[in-house]
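Researcher: I'm preparing a figure for a lab meeting and need a structural model of a single chain. I don't have an experimental structure, so a prediction will have to do for now. The sequence is pasted below. Please return the structure as C-alpha cells so I can convert it later.
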Amino acid sequence: MALTGNPLLKLLVVPVVIGAILIGVSMMGKKESAQSQGAATPTVTSEEAATLGIDGDTPADTLRTIVAESRQLKDQISKVIQENDSLKAANENLQGRLRNIDQNIEQKLNNTAQELQQQQENRSQTILDQVQKRLENLTHIPEAGDTDLPVGFGVRPEDGQHFQGAGSSSSDIVWIEPQDARAVDANGQPLAAGSTTQPSGFSFPTSFGNAVDRGQNALERIDDGLHPVGQQRSDLENRKLVRKTYTLPQNSTLMGSVAMSALIGRVPVDGTVNDPYPFKILIGPDNLTANGIELPDVAGAVASGTASGDWTLSCVRGQIRSLTFVFNDGTVRTFPAPAEEVNDNQSNNNQTASADQKTIQGG
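Model: Understood. Here is the structure written out cell by cell.
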C-alpha cells in the first residue's frame, strides 16, 4: 500500500518559505541602514579641530575639560553671589546711616527752631517789659523838685502847676539862655562878666552852618581884613570870591568832543580876522578831565568860539571864547561871565595891528 502525502503540508510549506524570505530581506535592510548611518557620521578636519581647540584630544580629555570649565563656572557664580550679598549688606548699612543722618538733621533743626522761638519770645518779653516800664515812668506824677514835664503819654492837665510861683500868672514865660552864649555889645564885642551894659545880642563859639560854609566865611573875613576900610574891590577880585572846587588847568585835553557846527576858517589879515565864523563843540561827561582826573557831577559842557585859517587848504584852528558847564543837579556855569564875554568880544573886534596885539591862540 503506497503512502500518500498530506496536501495540507504542501500548502503550509509555501507560506513558511515566503516568510523566511521576507525575514531575510528585512534583516539585510537593517544591516544596510546601519551601514548607511555609520557612513553618514560627520568627520572633523584637523583645521576645524585646531579652531575648536580639540585637536589631539581624546573624548576623555574633552570630557575632563568640560568638567573643569563647569567647576570654574560654578566657582565664578558662587563668587558673584557672595559679592552681591556683600554689596547688599553694604547698601543696607549705608541706608541705615542715611536714615540716622536724616534723623540727626531733623532733630537739630527742631532744636534750633525751638531755640530761635525761645529767643524771640524772650526778646519780645524784654521789649514789652521796657515799654511797660517807660509807660509807668510817663504816668508817674513828677515831684516838687522836678523841672521836666512828662513827655508823651501820661501828661495830665494839672501837670506843671508846680512851676508857677506865688503871684505869677499863667501867661509868664520862662526863658533859659544857652550855656555857651556870649553877650556882645552893639559893636559885636563880648561883654565882660558882671558888666552893667545891656547886651545887644549873643554870639556862639560854634556855628550851626555847614563846615564848608564856615571855612569859606573864615577866608572871607581874612580877606576883608587885608583890604583897607572903604576900599572897593574890583570885578576881578569879586570873581575870585567865588568858591573854587574843581579846576580845569591849561593844556587840559578834552577828548571825544563833537562839533555842533562846521569849522569854517577865515584867513587872518595882519593878524586880525574880520567877521570870524563862530562854532560850537559839545563835550561829554567822560572827557572833562583835569590832569587826568574826571570832574565829578558834570553832565556835559558846551564850548563856543571863533575859527580862523584857510578853509580851502583844510587848515583851520579855533579859539574858544566861552565854556558852559552843565551839572547833574541842573546848575549851569559859564566861564567867563556873559558880561565880560561881551566886553571881550568888543575889544577883540576893535583890535588893530600893533606891536602889543594879542596873537590868535589855537584851540
